[in-house]
Amino acid sequence: MRVRNIRGIEKKIEETAGEKYIIDPSSNKGRWKKVFNNNNPIHIEIGCGKGKFITSLAQKNKNINYIAIEKVEEILYKTVLKLDKEESLKIILGDGNDLLEYFAEDEVERIYLNFSDPWPKKRHHKRRLTSDVFLDKYRIILKNQGKLILKTDNTILFEYSLNTLNKKWLLENISLDYHHSEEIEDSPTEYEEKFRKKGIRIYRLEAINQK
Fold it and tell me: Which residues are annotated as catalytic?
């Protein structure tokens, strides 16, 4: 996806998001519940894109603390523009590689991966967000029985994820043709809405962390 550069974008993010923008997430490692000023569970989305998914969940679920992580400033700004007055969402300009700098052991209860880059070339497989490199980090910050939830339109990435997750995680609710249900805590992303209009199949799975 080509992203148009915006002059002074980080300042725009900080000014628009206010206290919801966490400038130095590593300083909050182990103390995120103090940041939110409650003991609610913490759910994070890695690669939040334009933010439709996580802002929608935050507006519906006031009893959960959400943290949106995105590494591209111009894309994160799209999330900032969707922010409401809800106090249950914080945003981070950061990278999934740095999760262990942001979160302490057992600090997170759920991780969302929505339509992540499939990195199709073999030499780039370790960059996939369900590679063993990333899964080892998730297992540390996730509580025992915490969940990783993946949605993708990419068959190869989904099959790859099934194989890597099956080593140490308990897989459940695997769908090869997923359709949103009100019974599931979920919301469509911008990509998901486009794919559905084109008749593209969506894959989804849930993986439980077993320590």
Answer: 117
